[in-house]
Amino acid sequence: MTPRSHGRLDIATRVAGIVLLAGAAVLVLGHARHAITHGRPWTWLVAACTTAVLLTAAAPLRRALTFALERPPRWAFLAATAVVAAGVSATLLVLALDGKTMSRDGAVYLMEARALASGALGIEVPEPALGVAARFLLAGPDGRMYGVFPPGWPLAIAPFVLAGAPYAVGPVVAALLVPVQHAMVRVLGGTELAARGAVLVTLVSAARAFETADLLSHAFVALSGCTALVLIADARRPLGWARAVGAGALAGWATSARLLDGVVLGSAIALVLLSGIVSKQRLAKPHHLGLFVLGAAPFAALLFLHQNAATGDWTRPTQHEYFARSDWPPSCHRLGFGKDVGCRVEHPESEVAFGEDGYGPSDALRVTSDRAGRLGDDLFLCAPLLLLAFLAPIVRPSRATLGGAALVMAFTLAYGLFYYGNAPVFGARHLFPIAPIAWALAAIALDGGVRGRAATRTPGAGEGDEGRRDGRGDGGVVGLAVLLAVMAVIAPGHWRGRIAGVAIYRDSLPDVRRALERAGVESAIVLVASGDSLAAAVTPNDRSRGLVLARVPSLAPLMRALYPRLPVVRVHADERVERVTPVAPRLTYPLMCAWPALVRTSRAAVVPADRDRLIVHRAELGATVRIPIWVPRDGRYHVALRGVTTAVSGRWLPRLDGHVGPVLDGYGDRIAPVVVLWPRSIPLRRGYRSLALESVGRDARSGGLLAAFETLDLERDATADR
C-alpha cells in the first residue's frame, strides 16, 4: 500500500471514528448524571491535573513509572494481576455476598448446573412439583423442572459443582479475563504498555468484581466471546485449524449462554474470519469457516436439546415459553418494538413508562442511553469516560480499532431491541460482554494520544507493536496514569455504594443447604419463604434422600399428608432453622403455588396474589388455565374448589382429570369466600392429574371475566374403601 493510499485509509477511519464518537456521546451524555453519583467532581479534576503535570514535568518519574510497568516479564505481570483479580472476586464473595448468590438468576443457574452435573438437563423434583414451582423455573413435558436460562453458563459451573465448590467458578473467570484483556489490546494494535494499563484499569472496576463474584453469566460470555475474537483476529501468525475450531467452540458456548450476546459477538467473529479469507494477505482459508462452524456445533446441539426438553419444541427459547405462561402479553419478552413488548408482571414500571403505543424507538433510545451511561459508570466509574473507547480509531486509526469501536456500538444498539434496561446494584450487566473491548480501546486511545512522536520501535516489531521504549517515548504512561488516578479517587464511593446495595439482596436470600447442614437436618419437609433460595437449594438427589422443599407455609398440610413420617422445619432469612410442630395433614393444594412454573394458559394471564390466591387477571371467553395436581394413591375423592368473589369476576367451569364440576360464579359486590363441590366423589388414579379451569361467561352485573382461586381440596371417600 502506498503512503498516499495509507493516508486516505487513515482519514476514512478517523471520519468513521468521529461518527461513532458522536453517536456514543449522544447516548452516554444523555445520562451524564452517572458521572456525579460517586464523590465530588472537583476532586477528579484535581487528581487528573496533578497527575498529568507531575508526570509531564518530571521526566525521571515518568520514565521510572514506565520502567516499573513494562519491566516485569509478561508472564509475571499477568500471573500477579490474575491472582489479584481472583482474590478481589473471592473476597467479595465471602465478605459482601456471604458465600452465596445474591441474585435470582444466580440461584437458577446453580440449579441448572446441578442438573447438568448429574447428567441431565432438568431436575426430577419430589412430588408435588407444586412445592418448588418457583420463579424462573419451568416444568417440562417430562415433569422435570428446568431453569428458564440457556444451558451454556450452567455447563461451565457444573465441574465446580462436582468439585463441591460451585461459587469458585467466578474467581476463576475473573483470573482468566486478565490474559484475555491483555491479548485483546495486542490484537487491536496496542502497545505492551497499553495492554498492561488496560489490565490495571479492570482491577479498579467494581462491576467486574461483582459480575465474577456472583453466579451471573455476563462475565463468562465476555471471557468466551472475547477469547474467540482474539483467536480469530490475531494476525501475527497464520490461522490454524486448532484456532478456528477453538474460536467456533467458544463462540458457540457464548451463544448457548446468552442468545443475543452470542449472535452479535458470533456475527462479528464470522465477519473477521471472512475478511481474512478475502484479504490480499490470505490470513484465513475457506475451510477455516467450516472448522469454525464445526467447533460451535456441539453447543448449538446442547441449546436445542435443552429447549426441546423444557418446552417440547426444538426452536422455542425457554424464556419465551416461560413468559408465555407467567406474564402478559404472552409475547412480552420478545425483542423489537410494539404494544405487546414489555412484561406487565415482571417489569411493571418499565411497561407503564412506554405509554399506550407500547415500546417504540423513542423508548429504545431512552433505555439504550441509560444502559450506555451506566456501562461507563460500571467500567470506568464515570459515564463520560466510556467515550475514551471511541477515541481510539481517531488517534490510532486502523481497521482493528475502528472494528472494535463499531462492535461496542453495535452491541449497545442491539440491546436497544430489549426493552428492560439496568437493574439496581447489577448495573448495565447486559453490556458487560463487550467490557474487554471497551477497556482495550480506551487504553489504546490514551497511550496513542499522549505518546506523540517520541516513541521508537524495536527493530523487527510488527505493525501496531511499538515494542519497548528507549526512554524517550514514555509519554503514553501519562494518559493511563491520569485515568487510573481519576478512577482511584472515585472508587471508594463507588465500591461502598455497590456493597451497600448488595446487602439488600444478600440478607433476603438464605443459603438453605448451608443452614440445613449446620442444623444437622438430612431428611425433612423444609419450608422456605424465598423462592429464589429454594431454587438454589434444589438438587437431583433430594427425592432419594427424603428432603422435600416447599416455598410457602400454606403447603405444609399437603406435605404432611404426602410425607407423614418426615419432620417439618422452616429456614428463616437469617438461616436459622426452626422445627415446626406438625400440622394436620390435608390434601389441600394452594393453587397460587403453581405459578409460574406449572401453569399453562390459553387466552388468559395469571399472577399470584397475597393470601394465597391465584388471580386470572386477563381472560377471554373460552380461556383456559391448566394446573397439574398430584394424587398420592388410587381411589375415589370428594373434590372442592375454593376462591373468592369480586365485582369483575366471571363464571369458570372446573374439570379434574376430565370430571366436570359445578360452575364457579366469581361475581360478588364484595370480596367473599366461594366454594363449589363436585356432586359426588370421583375416581382418580395415582400421579399427576390435570385441573382445567375454563371461562364460560359472566353474570350480567359483573365487570369482567376474571377469577381469584385459592385451593383445590381432595378428601378420600371413606365409603368407597369399605
Task: Describe the largest sheet.
Answer: 11 strands, antiparallel
Strand content: 5-15%
Oligomer: single chain
- For the CA atoms, what is the radius of gyration? 29 Å
Count of DSSP helices?
24
Described by the principal axes of the CA atoms, the overall outline is elongated
Straight-line N-to-C gap: 98 Å
Question: Could you describe the 3D structure shown?
Answer:
This protein has 722 residues and is of the alpha+beta class. Helix content is 49%, strand content 15%. The protein contains 24 helices and 17 strands. The strands form 3 sheets. Strands 7, 8, 9, 10, 11, 12, 13, 14, 15, 16 and 17 form an 11-stranded antiparallel sheet that branches. It has a 4-stranded mixed sheet with strand order 4-3-5-6. A hairpin with a 5-residue loop joins strand 5 and strand 6 (577-580). Helix 4 runs antiparallel to helix 7, helix 4 (74-96) runs parallel beside helix 8 and helix 8 runs parallel beside helix 20. The termini are far apart.
Task: Please summarize what this structure is.
The protein has 722 residues and is of the alpha+beta class. 49% of the residues lie in helices and 15% in strands. β8 and β9 (613-631) form a beta hairpin.
Q: What is the topology?
A:
Layout: H1 3-29, H2 41-57, H3 59-70, H4 74-96, H5 104-117, E1 137-139, E2 145-147, H6 152-162, H7 169-187, H8 192-204, H9 206-213, H10 218-233, H11 241-257, H12 259-278, H13 286-311, H14 318-326, H15 348-353, H16 361-380, H17 392-395, H18 399-414, H19 435-451, H20 476-506, H21 512-519, E3 524-528, H22 531-537, H23 542-545, E4 547-550, H24 556-562, E5 568-571, E6 577-580, E7 587-590, E8 600-609, E9 613-631, E10 635-645, E11 651-656, E12 659-660, E13 664-665, E14 672-677, E15 682-684, E16 687-697, E17 707-716
Parallel strand pairs: 3-4, 3-5
Antiparallel strand pairs: 1-2, 5-6, 7-17, 8-9, 9-16, 9-17, 10-14, 10-15, 10-17, 11-12, 11-13, 11-16
Helix pairs in contact: 1-16, 1-18, 2-20, 4-7, 4-8, 4-9, 5-6, 5-22, 7-8, 7-9, 7-10, 7-19, 8-19, 8-20, 10-11, 10-12, 11-12, 11-13, 12-13, 12-18, 19-20
